[in-house]
TrEMBL record:
One family name in Pfam for this protein: NAD_binding_10
Span of domain NAD(P)-binding: 6-144
InterPro entries, sorted: NAD(P)-bd_dom (IPR016040), NAD(P)-bd_dom_sf (IPR036291), NmrA-type_oxidoreductase (IPR052718)
Gene3D superfamilies reported in the protein's UniProt record: NAD(P)-binding Rossmann-like Domain, UDP-galactose 4-epimerase, domain 1
Protein name: NAD(P)-dependent oxidoreductase
CDD domains per the UniProt record, alphabetical: TMR_SDR_a
SUPFAM superfamilies reported for this sequence: NAD(P)-binding Rossmann-fold domains
Superkingdom per UniProt: Bacteria
């Protein structure tokens, strides 16, 4: 039996949809904080079990009988380590045979502040005695595509990544990678550095938006503090604004670049081009 935490999130749903192509629905467990949000998964025959990272007892019940677990990192930055520790402990108690964890690209050396909690979680896994595999996911292209409406409105794509090259991939690519690992044997101990086949700068990204939309869009690089301030002024919560500015600054130092093509090798096809993600975003 295969369980996926955060199963009603965007990545979790993608993984489940891919697994359903080759795994009977009743052999999949969707671990969710709010089962009411997974009615559609239950209708497909997927086992929906309540599991809250902050409530260890719910995790113990959710993971009963599970052989493989995809631990999708918590979205609650600042609380991730404690929450992941609960999930790891529950997995060990349940006798899980393989835990796959969605970490961050080059977690051991990334300049991104996001890396701290991922490094701590990887250390917990190493100490746990559980067989585990690390899916060190790079940036989702959709993270930048979310800025397209504002870029079109103002004719400017803001950032602080300078000329740092970003080897992002579509969320679906990372979902396919997770599914491939869960369906394969001999994965324990492996570390996958996952990123897109091609890289680009934010100037390139802005130029592609302009090309496809037919509207003028240019990239404006800013000091990280100014970029964070602009995001807060636009209405983003302080923590998220600071995180995005830190991530862009990390990109300027190579934190979102990798040219190993490990992701496309794992999923057996090229990763989704940046231009394709932009095309889909503009079509909405």
């Amino acid at each position: 039996m295969i369980a996926i935490t955060g199963a009603t999130g965007q990545l979790g749903r993608l993984v489940i949809s891919i697994l359903l192509e080759s795994v009977p629905a009743n052999e999949l467990v969707a671990v969710v904080r709010t089962p009411d949000k997974a009615v559609d998964l239950a209708a497909l025959g997927v086992q929906v079990r309540r599991g809250d990272y902050t409530l260890p007892d719910t995790l113990a019940d959710a993971l009963a009988g599970v052989d493989k677990l995809l631990l999708i990192s918590s979205s609650e930055i600042g609380q991730r380590v404690a929450q992941h520790a609960n999930a790891i402990a529950a997995a060990k108690s349940a006798g899980v045979q393989l835990l796959a964890y969605t970490s961050i690209l080059h977690a051991d050396s990334t300049p991104l502040g996001l890396g701290d909690e991922h490094r701590q979680t990887e250390a917990l896994l190493a100490q746990s005695g559980l067989p585990f595999v690390l899916l060190r996911n790079g940036w989702y292209t959709e993270n930048y595509a979310a800025s397209i409406p504002a870029a079109l409105q103002y004719g400017v794509l803001l950032g602080c990544a300078s000329e740092g090259r970003i080897a992002s991939a579509a969320r679906a690519d990372y979902g396919a990678a997770a599914a491939a690992v869960l369906l394969s044997q001999g994965q324990a101990g492996k570390i996958y550095e996952l990123a897109g086949d091609a890289s680009y700068t934010l100037s390139d990204f802005a130029a592609e938006i302009a090309k496809q939309s037919g509207k003028p869009v240019a990239y404006q690089d800013m000091p990280p503090a100014d970029f964070a301030a602009a995001l807060k002024h636009a209405g983003l919560p302080e923590g998220l604004a600071d995180l995005l500015a830190d991530s862009d600054a990390g990109a300027s130092r190579g934190g979102l670049f990798d040219d190993s093509r490990t992701l496309s090798t794992l999923i057996g096809r090229p990763t989704t081009p940046m231009a394709e993600v932009i095309r889909k975003a503009l079509a909405v």
